């Protein structure tokens, strides 16, 4: 493998943001080479040096560049290495895919895997290593993050489950109807166009109050009722804020729902300013220590 490195020297650190970024980029290119040769360059030659090396490193006829991923320690061809835009940390596609997938399944937006680095990972750049299914999940997480938890709405129909904002739903629901969206809890899904109740998060119940519908045969024989019965049996908890079900597998009883609402898993009381408002036990030993 051919190698060439230009080492940056100087008595003073660059003060210009553009120069600092340029120095970081050149140093990043340096890390790809094996052998080094020291040349003294004037500061105003920096851009030329960067363009020269960048041109060579992008030419397959001159170089075959292999990098070591700092997560899996495998040596990977550089076209399979992902660079986090803001911090310039680099990891292989495989490690980044696993990292992003884990964060998305936790309901979070992924950040740079580097310890204590909080640089966000852009959704467009993730197309390089995410499959279409994970990419769609990330688009959903980005949209969720842009909407306040109290304004998030999910379609209750299991074959749809579309995510919407309250503003989108109101705009999509006909206000000229005798059951106008502003007068009742009726809303229309922006994806499947079916009507649902935004108050009790179920398909729309004509001529019934929410409490009346919950007691009716229609609800008791529905999948929603079966799910509620299973939740009671398995001791799952419903988030008061977004109505999503939460299951505690391990850890303490302080729950932070994906919508941002925090509550006690035992009694459902809200946590305020990271402090519990109830007298329940915070944790049980068998939930924290594994056999």
Automatic annotation (TrEMBL):
It comes from the Eukaryota. Its cofactor is Zn(2+). One of its GO terms (cellular component) is cytoplasm. GO terms for molecular function: ligase activity; ubiquitin conjugating enzyme binding; ubiquitin protein ligase activity; zinc ion binding. Its EC number is 2.3.2.31. It holds the Pfam family IBR. GO terms for biological process: protein ubiquitination; ubiquitin-dependent protein catabolic process. It is an enzyme of class 2 (transferase). It catalyses: [E2 ubiquitin-conjugating enzyme]-S-ubiquitinyl-L-cysteine + [acceptor protein]-L-lysine = [E2 ubiquitin-conjugating enzyme]-L-cysteine + [acceptor protein]-N(6)-ubiquitinyl-L-lysine. InterPro entries: E3_UB_ligase_RBR, IBR_dom, TRIAD_supradom, Znf_C3HC4_RING-type, Znf_RING, Znf_RING/FYVE/PHD, Znf_RING_CS. Residues 65-290, 69-116 form the RING-type domain. Keywords: Ligase, Metal-binding, Repeat, Transferase, Ubl conjugation pathway, Zinc, Zinc-finger. Might act as an E3 ubiquitin-protein ligase, or as part of E3 complex, which accepts ubiquitin from specific E2 ubiquitin-conjugating enzymes and then transfers it to substrates. Belongs to the RBR family. Ariadne subfamily. This is RBR-type E3 ubiquitin transferase.
């Amino acid at each position: 493998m051919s190698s060439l490195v230009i080492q940056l020297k100087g008595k003073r650190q660059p003060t210009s943001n553009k120069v600092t970024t340029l120095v970081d980029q050149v140093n990043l290119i340096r890390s790809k080479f094996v052998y080094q040769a020291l040349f003294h360059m004037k500061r105003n030659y920096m851009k030329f040096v960067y363009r020269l090396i960048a041109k060579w490193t992008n030419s397959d006829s001159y170089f075959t560049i292999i990098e070591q991923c700092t997560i899996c320690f495998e040596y990977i061809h550089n076209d399979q290495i992902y660079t986090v835009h803001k911090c310039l940390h680099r990891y292989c596609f495989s490690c980044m895919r696993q990292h992003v997938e884990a964060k998305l399944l936790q309901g979070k937006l992924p950040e740079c895997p580097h310890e204590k680095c909080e640089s966000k990972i852009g959704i467009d750049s993730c197309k390089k290593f995410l499959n279409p299914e994970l990419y769609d999940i990330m688009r959903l997480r980005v949209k969720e993050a842009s909407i306040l938890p109290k304004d998030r709405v999910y379609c209750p129909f299991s074959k749809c489950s579309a995510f919407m904002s309250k503003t989108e739903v109101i705009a999509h629901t006909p206000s000229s109807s005798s059951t106008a969206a502003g007068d009742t809890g009726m809303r229309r899904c922006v994806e499947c166009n079916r009507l649902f109740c935004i108050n009790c998060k179920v398909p729309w119940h004509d001529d019934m109050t929410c409490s009346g519908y919950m007691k009716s045969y229609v609800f008791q024989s529905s999948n929603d009722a079966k799910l509620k019965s299973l939740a009671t049996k398995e001791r799952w908890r419903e988030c008061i804020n977004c109505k999503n079900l939460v299951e505690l597998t391990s850890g303490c009883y302080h729950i932070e729902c994906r919508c941002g609402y925090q509550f006690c898993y035992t009694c459902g009381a809200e946590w305020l300013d990271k402090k519990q408002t109830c007298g329940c036990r915070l944790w049980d030993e068998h939930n924290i220590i594994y056999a």
